[in-house]
Amino acid sequence: MESRGQDNQISKFRSPISGDRSSQSVRTNLVGETMIPWDVNSNHAKSYHVVPKVKTPLENDARRRQIPSTSFGANTSSEHQIHSDKRLKSRTRFVPSPRSPQPSMYLTVLNEFFKSERLTKLENKVKRRTVEALEKLSKNIEETRRRQELLLQDSKALQQEALHLETENNYFLKFLRKRNDLCKKKHEDLWNHYFQECGEMRRRKQELASMFAQQNADLQKQLLHGKSTQFQLKQQVQSLQHMNVVKKGQEMKIRALQEELADMKAVTAKRDQEAFLQFLQQKIPLDREMQELKCLQVGQGRSKEVKNKARALASTAKKVNSEICSSVCRENQELQEELVRQIREYHKLDSLKRQLENWKEKLKEEQWYQEALVRGRHQLKAERERSHD
């Protein structure tokens, strides 16, 4: 946009020069018009060798007055200086030339050399026409001189305008040179900044590539370690599946033993109650017999039959009591042994249960580790795709 504006300004500065050319063409046309009467009359005068054709200063200046076109491209300062010198030289050509001979001198020459007394009628007629032509020519010369003065004034005004335009053009060219230098400097600064940013981006790219390679290698190591750990865990899971089957069987056995223990406790309590009832049933007649024996011992006399009967009853009571006590002790010992065995089995199954729970926790941790590795790989892949985009 700046270059278009500068071209418009340059075209504005060129417009006065084009106006100068148009005014120049008008002036040359005026000079041509003033020369037409003289050419007609001069043909008649040439036949009598009276007055030769004299070129006016304006006609000579019109042929030489070709102002070269100037260029406002501002390529170099030397070319501008050369064009400005040419314009100044071309515009200084409008100087007043020495005046041509006065028509009155031609009239005096005619009157002196061609006197009326010595001429014939035809010669007098020619002389009269020549005098009229010279008078008309003098009038045309005076009018041409007045026009020449006006044109000289116009030329001076145009020269002043050209000098003014020259100063404006010089100022504009200085402005353009300064603006060109600023643009070049800005262009160089932008290129330097661009090269610095390119170097920084290359360095950053190398750093990111090395960082990515390092992270990729670390993740590959972690992936291999995770795969080996996963393989080991799969083997442990397979072994734990067998142990889980064993655990389920043991739990079923434990429940069966617990149910059996509860049943045995109920049966033992029932047997104890039945034995106690039986003991009470057997104790009642024995107590009755003992009371009878005591009554016999206290109030009545003793006899052999009574003593024998008492001894038999005492031995029977001791025997029944020892049998009941031994059976109760034996059952109690069997129950205690069974209880100890059940307790040992319970502790063994409890330790196996804790071990299985620990393995289950380890499996959960390994599964979480595998999921974290998968998420890390997905995040790394997404970051890589964003960096490529």
Task: Quickly describe the structure.
This protein is mainly α and 389 residues long. The chain has six helices and no strands. Helix 1 (2-47) packs antiparallel against helix 5 (121-299), helix 3 (77-91) runs antiparallel to helix 5 (121-299) and helix 5 (121-299) packs antiparallel against helix 6.
What is the percentage of strand-forming residues? under 5%
Query: Secondary-structure element order, as H and E?
Result: HHHHHH
Helix percent reads over 70%
Structural domains: how many: 2
pLDDT < 50 stretches: 1-101
Task: Please report the distance between the alpha carbons of the first and last residues.
Answer: 35 Å
Give a count of the beta strands, DSSP E runs of length 2 or more.
0
Mean pLDDT: 71
Describe the main β-sheet briefly. Answer: none
User: Compute the gyration radius: what is it?
Assistant: 74 Å
- Separate helix tally: 6
- The secondary structure category is mainly alpha
Description:
- This protein is mostly helical and about 400 residues long.
- The protein folds into two domains: about 1-185, no CATH class; about 220-389.
- The protein is about 90% helix and about 0% strand.
- The protein is built from six helices and no strands.
- The longest helix is centred in the middle third of the chain and has 179 residues, at about 120-300.
- It starts with a helix and ends with a helix.
What is this structure's SSE topology?
Elements lengths: L1 H46 L9 H8 L12 H15 L11 H11 L7 H179 L4 H85 L1
